[in-house]
Amino acid sequence: MRANSSTIRTHRALATLAALLAGSLALAACGSNDKKSDGDTSTGATRSSTLSLPKLDGTTLEVAAVWTGQEQKNFKQVLAEFEKRTGAKVTFVPAQDPIINFLGSKIAGGQPPDIALLPQPGAIKQAVQKGWAKPLSADTVTEVQKNYSQGWQDIGKVGGKQYGVYYKAANKSLVWYNAKVFENAGAKEPKTWQDLLTTAQAVYDSGVTPFSVGGADGWTLTDWFENVYLSQAGPEKYDQLAQHKIKWTDPSVKQALTTLAQVWGKKGYVAGNASGALQTEFPASVTQTFTGGDQPKAAMVYEGDFVQVNIGETKAKVGTDAKVFPFPSVGSTAPVVSGGDAAVIFKDSKGAQALAKFLASPDAATIQAKLGGYLSPNKSVPNSAYPNEVQRTIAKSLIASGDDFRFDMSDQAPQAFGGTPGKGEWKDLQDFLQNPTDVAGTQAKLEKDAAAAYGSGS
C-alpha cells in the first residue's frame, strides 16, 4: 500500500520525537511505577459521558481479531461495556494469520464477522478491492475526525473513503531489558548501534546471553529490519522500499542486513542461537528475558510497547525490574516505527456502525488503556488512563508525534509478502537469521517474493 504523504513528513520531526522519547523514558524509569500523572490536559475524561449510541436490544454482532491471551481478555472487557450501553450481544471470534485468508474463508461460507481488526493497511486495501469492506457511516467518520490526527485517519482510508478505525497502535522502536542483569554487568542504556554492541558485549562477558529473539514469529524479524533500515537509510528510502519503488537488491538493503548480522550472526549473542530463536515465539522471547532472576536466558528483547502484556505474566515489574530504552540510532537519527490494528466493517448494519463508532471513541480505548499493555492513537484518551509511568510516557510521545511517524513497512506491503507466516519477507528473514552471512542470497529472495506480491497486489 502506498505510504500516504500526509503521514510522512520530515526526518527532523522523527529526530525530535526520538529525543523526546529517550528523555522521557529515562525520567519514567526513575519515577514511580504506578503514580498517576498530574498534568493531564486531555478532553477524553470530559467527553466520555457524551457519546451517543443507539439501543440495540436483540442485535448480535461478531468481532474477529488475531489477538490471544491477555490482550484478547482485555478487549473483551471493552466489548462488554458496549453490550452494557446498547443491549447488543457481541461475540469475539479468534482469527488466524493471515487474517485476509481467514476472512476469505468466512465470507465464502456466508459467515463474515460484522467487524474485523486488521493489522495491516495493505489488508484494508485488499478487503476494499475484493468488495468485502464497507465504508464507515458519516456519524462514525465524525467520531474518527474528532479523535485522530490526520495521519491516523489517512492510513485507514482507501480511495479517499474512511474504512478503518485505528483502535490500537504500537510504538515499535523500543528495547526492553532486565535491569538486574544490566546492573551486574555494569552495562548502560545505549544511544547508538555501536553503543548497543558495546552493551551486548558487557552483558555477554558477565555470563548472560545479550538478546532474546522471537524468530518463530517472522513479524518480529521484519520489525528489527525496519528499525535498522529507517535509521540507516533514512525516511525517503524507507518510503521507496515500502512502496517497492526501489528493489530489495538495493545497496541500502545490503547495508541494513549486514548491520543486523552484527547481532544475529554473533556467536553467543542470541538465546538458543539461531535454531533456538527460530523455535521461540514472541511471548516466550519476552518472558524468558524476565524470569530466572539475574540469570535469565537473555538480557534484552526488542519489540513494541505491547511487550508489557507479556512482562505482566512474570514477576517482573515494569519500570523497576523491566526497563526500556528507544531503539538506538544506526544512522544520524533514531528510528520511530509505528504499527496498529484497524477496525473494519464487513457487514454493514446499524449495530456494526455503532460498534465502530464506539471503538473510535475515547470511551473504548480508555477501558483497555487502564488494563495495560495497550497503546491508542486516539488523542482524546486521557494520559492518566495508562497504568504506569513508562506506558504514559510512550503514549504521550505517540500523540505528540502527530502525523510525523513511519508506519510498519511490512504492514504496508501486500499480505502475501509482508504478512503471511512461512512466506515472503517473514520466511526470508527467518532464513537470514539461520544464515546471516548470506546477504546477497537473502536480498535476491526478498526481491523475488516482493516482485510477485506487489505485481499481483495480493
TrEMBL record:
Keywords: Signal, Transport
Signal peptide: 1-28
SUPFAM superfamilies: Periplasmic binding protein-like II (SSF53850)
Chaperone listed as a keyword: no
Biased composition regions of type Polar residues, renumbered to the chain: 40-51
Renumbered residue ranges of the record's region Disordered: 32-51
Family named by the database record: Belongs to the bacterial solute-binding protein 1 family.
Name assigned to this protein: ABC transporter substrate-binding protein
Organism: Streptomyces sp. 900105755
